[in-house]
Every structure is written in C-alpha cells, then in structure tokens.
Amino acid sequence: MKKLLLSLFALSLFSFITLNGDGDKIPSATVKTLDGSKINSSTFSNNGKPIIISFWATWCKPCKKELDAIAENYTEWQKETGVKLIAISIDDARSSGKVVTDVKSKGWEYEVYIDENQDFKRAMNVNNVPHTFIVDGNGKIVWSHNSYTEGDEEKLYENVKKIAAGEALTH
Amino acid sequence: MLKKHNRSSLTATFLILLFLATYQYQAQTDMGSVHGNFQIDAQYYNPDSLIGAPKVPEKMLSNAFGNINYQRGKFSAGVRYEAYNNVMQGFDSRYKGQGIANRFARYQDQLLDITVGNIYEQFGSGLLFRTYYEPGLLYDNSLDGIRVISNPFKGITLKALAGKQRSFFTVGPGIVRGIDGEVNINDLFDSLLANLKTKVIIGGSFVSKNQVDADPDFNLPENVGSYGGRINIIRGGFSFFGEYVQKENDPSASNYAFVEGEKYYSYKQGEAAFVSASYATRGISFLLQGKRVDNMSFRSDRDATLQNLLINYLPATTRQHTYLMPAYSPYATQPNGEVGGMAEVQFNFKKGSRIGGKYGMDITINYSQASGLKKIGVSDSTTTSKLYKTKYSEIGDLYYSDFFVEVNKKFSKKFKGTFMYCKQFYDKNIIQFGSPFAGYNNISSHIGVIDLTYKYKNNSALRLEVQGLFRDNKDTLNLGSWASALIEWSPSTNWFIAVLDQYNYGNPVNQLKLHYFLITAGYTKGPHRISMSYGKQRAGIFCVGGVCRNVPASNGLAISITSSF
After folding, report:
1. Which chain A residues are Cβ-neighbours of B34 within 8 angstroms?
2. Hey, is the C-beta of B289 within 8 angstroms of any chain A C-beta?
3. CB B436 within 8 A of CB B469
4. Residue B463's closest chain A neighbor by CA?
5. Tens digits of per-residue pLDDT, B463-488?
C-alpha cells in the first residue's frame, strides 16, 4: 500500500514536469531587507524592465568578484536597459551582520535582501552560490547561470539587452 | 526508509493534500510550475598509506540527491530523493542507502502560512532553534512536522511548530515544539512612526523538547524548556542586534563538564548571548560581534553527538576564511562554554582617489578571539549536580585567535590581485576533541596568500594563487608547515582547468614531506556544471556555507555534476 501511494505520488509530480520549463514567475518566499523588515520575493518588480537576481554570500569570493564586476558598469546598464539587480545574500546568523558592512563599504547600489534560512534559495533550486537569474519584464524567469568566471558579466549583460529589446534567449 | 509509523502517517497526510491540490488545479488552465535541481558527487578511491587514504572495498562511492518542487499560486510542495551508494568517505556512515528524505506541502498567504512535512525554520539568530540543510556537508536537521506562520497585522509575525528532527533516513526520538513572535514597531504603528528614522524590531521565542527517560541510573529531565528574547535597532548607517536565551538543565552526551579530569553530565542551566553591532557608510565600515555561551548544546536526543539532531545554532564569532590555508584550522563554537568576539574594519578607496589609484582598492582588517569560561567547581553530591559556576567578569583559557588583513587591488583593466596575511592561534585539543586532555600541542601559524588574476581577453583569464602556512611548532601530529600553488586557466567562460600542488615541506618526518597534486577541469553551461578532478587531497576541514566537515585524505578520481531546471 505504501509503495502504491509513493508511486502514485511520484507520478502526480512527474505529470507536471513536461508542462513547464523556464518562463515561470518568481516563487514566493520571505526574505529580509537590510533594515530588518520582511518582504515576499513574489512581489519583486521593476516596472516592466528586466531584473537580475544574484545569489551570493559574504564568504564567497567568486560571488563578490561578480558583483564587483557588475558594479563597475551598473549605472550604464541601468541607463541603457533599465535593468535592476537584486542581490540575495544566503549568509546565516554567523555572517549576516557582515552583509550590510560589505554592501555599504563597497558602495554597491543594488537592492539587497538576506535569505537567512535559505527559504528563497531552496524555492529557486539553487545548489551553490554564485547563481544568477534573469527575470523579464513580465516577471518571468528566463535564464539562469551557476558559478562565475571572468567575463561572465558581459554575457549576462548581452542577455539582459536582448530581454530589454523583447528578444528570446538561448542558454 | 519511512518505516517509522509517524513518518508514514505524515507522508499520507502530505499525499492527500497533494492529490486534493492537483485535483482542484487540473480544472484550471494554469497548471503551476515544476522546478528542481540535482547533484551527484562520486569518487573512485586509490588506497595510499603514506597520506593515510584507506582502502575502500567498494572502490567507488557516491552521494546524490534531487529536488522536485511544484508551485501554483499559494500552494507549493516538493520532494527530495537522496541516494548514498555507499556514502562517500568523510561523511557519517549512518547515511546508508536511498529514499525520500524530505517532502513537504505548503499553503501560503498573508494571514496563514502552513507547512506539513520537512520544515526549515529559524527563530532569531538561531540560538534556540534552527533547522538547516547544507547538501555539500550532508547536514540536514529539518523538522518533520507541522509549522504555522501568521501575520495577523502588519508588523506582527507569529510562528508555531512541532515535530521530530531528521536523523539520517529516519527521525530522532525527541519531540521538538516551539513558538516565536516578532514585532516590527515601525510597521505596527505605520501611520504614527512611518517617518521615524529609528527602526526597532523585538522578538521572543519558547522552544521545548521532550524525550523519555529510560536511564536506570540517572534521573533525567524528560522535558527541557528554553526561552529568550531579541532586539534589533537600526538608524541610518547604525545597526544593532542582540539576543539572549536560557535553557533549563539538560544533562546529555554533549552537555558535560570536566571536574578534576573526569567527565560528568552537567545539570547546570544553559545560557547564550549574541550581539552584533555595525556602522557602515560609503567607503568605510565597522563591525563588532560578541558572544557568550555556557552549557548550551541543545539536541532532540540526549545521546546524539557530532552534527546529529541539533535543535539550535550557536554562530561562531570568528572570521570565516575562504582560502585553503587560513581555513585549514577553522574555529567552531564550543557549546560547553565560550566567550569571544570580533572586530572588523573595511575601507574601500574609490578609483581616482590618492590611495585607491586609477582602479580603486579594498582593505579589510579583522581580529577575532574565543576563550573558555573560567569554571569554578561547586561540590554537589546529589544527582542534580551543577558541577560548576561562572562569572561574566572572568575569562578562561584562550582557544583561538586570528588577526587578519586582506588587500584587494586592481592594477589595470586586465590585472588584479588579493594579498592576505593572517596569524592564528588554535587549541587543537578543545576545538577538535572537546577535551583539554587529547594530547596535542597548541598551534601557532602565520599564513600568507597571494592571488593574482590576469584577464587577457574579454572572457579568458589566468589565475595564480600562492599560499604559505608557517608553523614554528615541530609537533609530528600537526604536520608542520605547508606551501601551495594553484594555476587556473579559463579559456572561455564555459571551461576551466586548474592544477593544485600542496607541499608539506615542513613535515617533521622526512618521508612525509609530500606533494599533493590535484588536477581539476570543469564545464559550465547556464545552470549546469560538471567537474572532474584527479590526484591527492590532504586530510583537513572542508567548509561550505559556514559549516565545516572533516575530509579524510584521498587519492583518486572525483566527479561532480550539479544542475537545476
């Protein structure tokens, strides 16, 4: 009986898999703003312009390299495409106090949230940081990328430009 | 798997919810979305007696898991399947076999957010309660039960939960129950205080565990309650967070004390305090953290050890290192008694400024330290022995200290570097063995790191990392000094290849002055990543996400695949 239930259960989940891929809305999870308020991730928006969501941590060197590299050109990116970057820190209680000092001393002009118990990370199926997503003007996730190597930020921006121009993306 | 009665009844509840949801939604056009991820790590082992790599009878071991999550509107559900055939070296061998290790169903709206199944939750900074999952370390203490979160008014969050914690492929014997409330004063009095610049959030929690006492010798408490409060004050660039908690007496395998060299269960009440204060503005920031912990190991099974069945989380207030050598001897909070803290300053010199030069520069300076408590023995011959008392004004022996400076500098459009120096003190007996009598010497180290990146084309780069770990200590058990070099080449953003050599040149035993060569190659495309490595890996502590585990020495071929969809 238990086996039957389990297989039924597995089937019911798998029946959805073929229906979807990219192109889904941001899942709902509670994250914290830097001043301690709570906000639901499904309310992230940018007035019809693209959004970059970047998962990072204060102890993650490649993550900070990526966010530094983007920071150098962020003003231009914003001017050209209206894109907004939302940086989600997965730091836990040990290092979450450091998020605000890192962000402010580096002068990152991003929207930053803390996902202390990694609710949002799990909902977005992130294995490791850094992991970066692009959300289109309709609020749909259309692209994602795991890890960072030098030059990744340029590829990311090419994709943002395509999205802003209403073109479709390939990975 | 799923043999326990309570586990199968929860699974049944979950299935019913899922079927109901499926039935209801199939009638509609929007079918919701399904996403997931998976990871497979596998290793082929060569025995190598020189570095201490054991013979592995299976030759090949692997850890694998996959998550599938479904979401439609306010409803979500998911399962995680895990397979360890057999579990890789360095992980707890009680992770044996395969099965559905995690499943949940959740309905979420503003007023009511209810979850059944495996729950991850944290109250405050976790001093009383945190369930957490870190796949890289096979760390999962999720609560298998029910959780309700409610926001009855703007600014008020109430949480309640109950269940049993995951323990490998089953659940632990103890029941965990908890409630937590948090008030955001500014949000609550929105109209009055919306323009107030000072933001205040206060919170409080109560958590209890219940476990039957079947011990013939001791009278052990079956219910252990714990409670505490927290406050968060923010104004402009200033931020303060403080939390204080207490726990009723909880004698267990991990709440113990040494009295005259003998190890005893401690019936003392536990307490913990954690404070974090910071000031940050463009270009400069300060961070101060402090912590005091006494008798605060909290588990849902009094016999559990290692990382198993921990109800709470006691964050370490020492610098979290990312490079290999400074992270070689990481510090972990000593729940039996610790006082410590850190101070950190960060400067960011803008590009174009005199110190920053043409491309800018970052400097981080950090000092952290952890010491034991000064325990004064109290003679109490009854079974309610408290064993010792402490004073806030007195500090015990030094366990760990770390002075750290890091400079990040960009020299040109193509060339940048990180330079790091750190000096560490490490009490191996206490930190690794939890006892002053384990027989090791204390370790003092000087560590230097140079990490240079040369980006010779838009998407091609070379990276060189040189590290040295210098120890004056010639203790054969501590392996002496190390030097390491890494060259990493990423010809395109998709590919990388890296060669690492760690050389134990300072080993006091001549034939153990060994090179540990490791070659790694990887390919990334979107959310998919595969990497392979071949060579020797030294024994040591491996940290992911701030949680660390011991990795035994190994020699062989390792493959790792991660993907999400």
Report:
1. 13, 16-17, 19-20
2. yes
3. no
4. A150
5. 999 999 999 766 666 788 999 999 99
